[in-house]
Amino acid sequence: MEARINMFENEVAGKFVKRLVAASRPVEESTLPKATQELVKIRASQLNGCGVCLDMHTKDAAHAGETSLRLNMVAAWREATVFTEPERAALALAEEGTRLADGHHGVSDDTWADVRKHYDDEQVGALVSLVALINAWNRLNVIVRNPAGDYQPGMWS
Q: In this protein, which residues make up the domain named Carboxymuconolactone decarboxylase-like (predicted)?
């Protein structure tokens, strides 16, 4: 499988990708736990069917010490006992913020209250930004059909 276009070689797409990378820095530098960041990226990428993002974020999470049990349970997080209450709130936000086009009415008041219960203002800002960013990355990669499977942890750092 080959991508429809190379996002890094295309002048406009390349500029856009560089700006998305820059936009992710405040989230990466925030106090939002790195494990939570990866779980949110994985869940949104599952929902959006983004293979290249799943490849990257599952490998990065494993490389950072995430267990295979937790990685394997992200898709069924509601039934899994391996996630903390704050992680569950973040995963709910990721799902509701990703499924906007599924006839969903956005993020519910209950989910928002749960997120506010577990995260401070900086972390909430990071979570909201992260959900928007990973959805943008997912859409770019799915549209151009970027292939998955060859990612090595840290190769795009």
A: 28-96
| Confidence check: pLDDT of 105 > 90 | no
Residue type, 151: Y
pLDDT band at 154 (very low <50, low <70, confident <90, very high): confident
pLDDT digits (tens, 9 = 90+) for 27-43: 999 999 999 999 999 99
Q: What ranges in the chain are assigned the alpha helix state H?
A: 11-28, 34-48, 51-63, 68-73, 85-98, 109-118, 121-144
**Predicted model pTM:** 0.94
Task: Report the C-alpha gap between 117 and 120 in whole angstroms.
Answer: 8
Burial class (CB in 10 A: 0-12, 13-18, 19+), 39: buried
Per-residue b or e along 117-155, where b marks 16 or more CB atoms closer than 10 Å to that residue's CB: ebbeeebbebbebbbebbbebbebbbebebebeebeeee
The topology (CATH level 3) of 11-144 is AhpD-like (1.20.1290)
Q: How many CB atoms lie within 10 A of CB 18?
A: 11
